[in-house]
Structure formats: structure tokens, C-alpha cells
Structures
1.
Amino acid sequence: MRACPRIEYVIFDMDGLLIDTESVYTQVTNDILAPHGVQMTWEIKAGLMGKVEQEASVQLLSYFPGIALTPEEYIAQRTIGQDRLWPAVRPLPGVPKLIAHLAKHKIPIVVATSSKRRNFLLKSAHLHQEIFAYFGCGVEGTEEMVVCGDDVSGKTSGKPEPYIFLYAAQEKLRRNVGDVEENVSPEHALERSRGLVFEDAIPGVEAGKRAGMSVVWVPDPNLLAMEYSGKHIPDETLRSIEEFRPEEWGLPPYDSIVRGVTGVK
């Protein structure tokens, strides 16, 4: 068994990690680009993952300088296409089991996503009982353990900056991690080391490691087949969250699968 830090709290990315949204992003973007005779490859997409909407759009279109499409026009078209498909996205394998397990054992958990709040609501409403009620979504008297891109707007340009993970730990989970990358105190460093980040994107892996946390990388097979381009190496790489073994990280091992959320209807 690998020697891993003993984890006390867990931070989850959302898109492509908890729910299968990456196929939607690819489909809608390539539908928009098709009339211009170009398409977004996985090499391009890999560099966009984890970035906030405006920055990702500008970067995407920079690969196609000859097409007459502004970032604002692209975002408007993409929003229409995606809004049609979000209500049908499904959890990725192993996700409901892991979330329910951590909640049962009272392990603090939080979602930290670059998605806008409006998009988060469209993606998550139909998955309330399976996943998001465990993060307090729609549970009366419970603080919602979700950080969206809007919550950190103007404070970060998105991953690979570590800010959103530090913000989620500090502001949502009340962990004393501080909010800067430089000159980290020993106390803050120790608290950061107790956190485990789950990510599917290389910029997210970078952000988690720069935050001083351990990172489990669960990439799309297309991304896994490419040469790894990050400066920081994930602590564990899995093909699916189904492969995750909580006990290797000092977390309670799986027992029975918890179904439903007590007190939530």
C-alpha cells in the first residue's frame, strides 16, 4: 500500500469529474466551429479545462484567427446549445457511492467548480438526490458546500491558480489554510496537507498541488492517452472514481452503500 497523507477533508471539481459534461462541451463547441471548417481537438481542449468562461473562450478562438467569431458570439451560441443538454447529464461511475460514503462518515466535502452558478444549477438540479444534496444543495438549514466561478470572480483567472481550492477550504469548510500561494506559514501548510482534491483536468491538478494539497487525477481516456504536460505530478491517477480506495488515504473503507439523504425529500 502506498504511503499517503491522512486526509481530513475532500474538495471535488465537478465537470468531467462528478458528472459527464465534457462530452457536452465538446459537442456544442464543435457544432459552433463546424461551419467555419475547424474543430476543437483534445490537444486544444486540454489547455482550456478549468479556466473561467471568458478566458477559455478567448484562448479557444486564438487557435483559429481566420474565423469571424468573437468570444462574446461564441459564448452566446454555446450557452444556447449547452442549456438544452445540461438537464440530461449523468453522474460518472463511482461518484454517488463515494459521495454518499464520505457523507455517511462525516468527512467534510465541498465542490469547487469554475462553472457559473446558473450553469451549476442547470447541471445539478436533476441530480439533487444522487449527489448534490450531500453538499447541502436544497437542504433547509444547511450551508451549501459549493463554490462556483462567480464566487471568486475578479480574484482569480481560474485554474491552474490555486485560489478556488484555498477559498473552498477556508470559506466553506472553515479550514485554516490561508488564501495565498507564497510565504505559507507552517500552520497553513499543515492544514493544506490534510486536504485531498479530485480533478479530471491538468490545470486542476496544477491548482491542487500549488494549493499544497494531495491530488487524485481522474482524466478522460483521451487526456490520459496524451503526454502529461503539467509541472506538478498528481499523487494518484485513476481511470475511474470506482478505482478509488479511501483507506489508502486514511479515510474510512467502504462498507455498505448509503442510498438517499436522511431528512431530504
Note: The chain has a mean pLDDT of 91.
2.
Amino acid sequence: MKKILFPTDFSDVSKNAFIYALKLADAIDAEIITLHVYQLDSPAYLDVSIYLQEIYEYEELTNFENYKDEVPVLRKMAEANNLSHIKISNVLLQGNLVDEVIKISKKENIDFIVLGTKGVTHLREIFLGTIATKIMNESKAIVLAIPEKCEYKPIEKILFTTKYNIIDIEALQKVQALARVFHSHIDCLNVKPPHTVYKDDFVVDFKNVFKDQNVDFHSILSNDVEGVILNFIEQNNINMIAIHVKHRSFFQKLFDVSLSKKLAFHSNIPILSIP
């Protein structure tokens, strides 16, 4: 059975993303491991050493009580979506969230990490939130990031941004494996400046590898790379965008366009990160 790791802080953002975790688990016959990580706050003053143990014990108890109250909420969400058959286990840990996510991902051989993301201002600095960014960079698992205002919709159309480099074929194969499960169509899009010769464009190879798959290939000449991608998403009713982690810095440029486009994009589209 495949495994999905679901880091949560039990916020509305996380609960919203949990719907995607449930739907994914149902589609690929996976179990879900929810993970809540907390950190103990050290007092800002010094002369309290004799009370430190009591303070830490109180904080641990408080976190445990909150955890105990919130876990059943996730189970009720599964029942409300007719997905109560999905196996769900729960883990509570103290430590650094990113470190613990990476550790448990390796230990449990996690296939997917699904997490909610928050933050629609200063996006260049906190692309999907710094936590999601670090997890994407460090994890060997596929990461599905769900923006806070994203409402669940069936994944019918996936956009895969690429420059048609050979290194992207394996990443696209992983996207295609997921697309088959959801019966999704994939659009591969390469936006390149006009009057430029590309010697590393292997679009013919891509078409040969995926010739019998539900995949279309597009190449558009434009200096407005980010604008073309955003327009493509809107005009083609894209439900999810997939990126190869090697191109994440390029993908961040999407958030350098106008604020209105940034907010519209960031609030509606789940992002699949392929390691």
C-alpha cells in the first residue's frame, strides 16, 4: 500500500488540503499518516530555571490535548466525504517541522506529501511558504501543495511546464502515472523568447515517449513567459500545475507578475512538485 504523509497544524488551511489527501489516497489505494509537529517555546527571561521543567511539561500537555481534540475532526471529514474506508494513522512529534517531515518520509518510504500552504503577500520571498519550499527541495517524495483558498475540484487537466530537456522526461512520467489514476489530460508547455535557437529542445523525443498517452505538447514564442503560462492556465481550465524541482527557481518567476495575477493564480491552483 502506498503512503501519504499529511503534515498539519489543524488550521483551516490544513483541513482544506486534507480533502486532497483523502481523494488522492482513495485514487491510489494509499494510507494517510497525519503528522503534527510542535516546538516548545523557551521563556524570554533567564532566572526561571527551576520552573523550566514545569513550563515544558505544561506545554507538552497542552499540545497533546489539542492534538487529541483535533484528530477526530479529520476522521469526521473522511466520513463526510464517504472516504471513511481510508486507513489513517496519526503521529505527534516535538521538533522542527521540516526536519521531522524529511525523517518520517525516509523512515516510512512515503510516496506523497500533501500539505496546505498559506501566504499571498511577498510571494517571491515566501514562495508557497518557506516550509513548503524547504520540503519540496529536500524530500524524495512527490509534494502536493494546496493553496489556502483552493477548493477541491476533480483533477481533469494538468499543466507541466518544461523546456523539453531530457531530464524532464522522467518527471513527466511520474506526472503521467498520477494522471492515469485521475483520468487526467496533461498539457506540456514550453514558452521561449522569439528569435532564439534552442539546441536542447527534445520535443520530438517527448512526443515519441508519450505518443500513446493523453498528453499534448505546446511551444509558444513570447518574451512574457509568466504571462503566457498564467493565461494558458486560465484559458484551458487547468486544475493542477506540475513542476520539476530542478526548475523551481524559474517557476518562482510566476510570482513576479502583477499582484492581481499572483493572487488569482496562487489562490486557485494546486501545485505538484516532482523531485
Note: Residues 120-128 have pLDDT under 50 and may be disordered.
